[in-house]
Design goal:
The complex is a heterodimer of chains A (235) and B (139). Chain A is 75% helix and 0% strand. Chain A is an all-alpha fold. In chain A, helix 4 packs antiparallel against helix 5, helix 4 runs antiparallel to helix 8 and helix 5 runs antiparallel to helix 7. Chain A starts with 6 loop residues before the first helix and ends in a 5-residue tail after the last helix. The model of chain A has no long low-confidence stretch (mean pLDDT 89). Chain B has two domains: 30 residues; 86 residues, Nucleic acid-binding proteins (OB fold (Dihydrolipoamide Acetyltransferase, E2P)). A five-stranded mixed β-barrel of chain B has the order 1-3-4-6-5. The N and C termini of chain B lie far apart (64 Å). Classes of the chains: A mainly alpha (235), B alpha+beta (139). The interface between A and B is large, with 40 and 42 residues.
Chain lengths: 235, 139
Amino acid sequence: MFKYFEPSRIFSITSKAPRYVMLLFIITLAIGLTEALILSPEDYKQSHSVRIMYVHVPAAWITLGIFSSMTFLSIIGYIFKIRNFFLISKSLAPSGLVFNIIALVTGSIWGKPTWGTWWAWDARITSMLILGLFYFMYLVAWRIFENKDSAFKITTIITILGIVNVPIIKFSVDWWNTLHQPASINILSKSSIHISMLFPLLIMTAAFALFSLLIFLMKYNTELIKIKNKGLDRL
Amino acid sequence: MYGRKVKLRFFFVLLILITLILSVYLILKSLEENVVYFQSPTEIKILPEIEKKKIRVGGMVKNNSLSMGAKEIKFIITDFKNEINVIYSGLVPNLFTEGKGVVAEGYLKDKNFFLATKILAKHDENYMPPEVKAALEEK
């Protein structure tokens, strides 16, 4: 019931897309940064260090979102043997890792003036570090296993192991006493972040999502070109 | 409608997931006291004995309890049920004030007395501009 994907037909779309995505990304980032760094107000308590949040929170969201999508794609790809899904998952991983590192580093920069420490072994921060290790393992696995089929299986296992950590990251601040504050934005109840700060946060999230899409398209095109050049691999 | 292999792979993935979730749940449950970053004054109260090792106590800095001396800072950490007295000398983070969250790292002298070696400010989930905060306080 699943047809093989035609690499050259996908490529004709994905090879043109990056330039438009790039343009959109630059526009969104410009608006987002102006909003976040200049137009948005300072916080009543943290004053200007609140601006780090506009990079920290979107990066954390995107890295969680990407890992969840990678797991979903890998599992579906494994169950139904769709090779294309593995390649999409593989191409998503680098931007996920980058945003994971960005979230950890910006969190650390924010933590020093606010909490008084660069690093704390609390549940939220540690579980985020573990997610970063899973991203790293995932990317290394693709390099180690030359055989495509074993790479597909191993990477799927890594995403399944890693996905258990994702709800732990999300709910760690509710389940245990952590130094990290609980979520400010709730879908079901009222958010405890003022609207003038929520707006730049959402634009920055859009900008980071576009950046991930851009990196994804570039990586994915490389994969397609490799397949084309070898002429052996079908998706 | 799906092949037998597809179904088998589906159950294989499902089994791995269920096993993993259960084992991670059990591990976290049994490690609970190491996963929490700090204990509340109430949890200190019900400790069977005073621990000699370094621990962290967290809660709110009680209003009107903070006194900054020349050498040391004294304050009370409360979780609105129980309280604990803290003595500390050293630098405090900017966000450390009365009525805000705090995590103190150090040693228990007895159940009401805590010698802190490090103070961390805990930030809450509220973000707003100063004008809004002022307007809120007027109400």
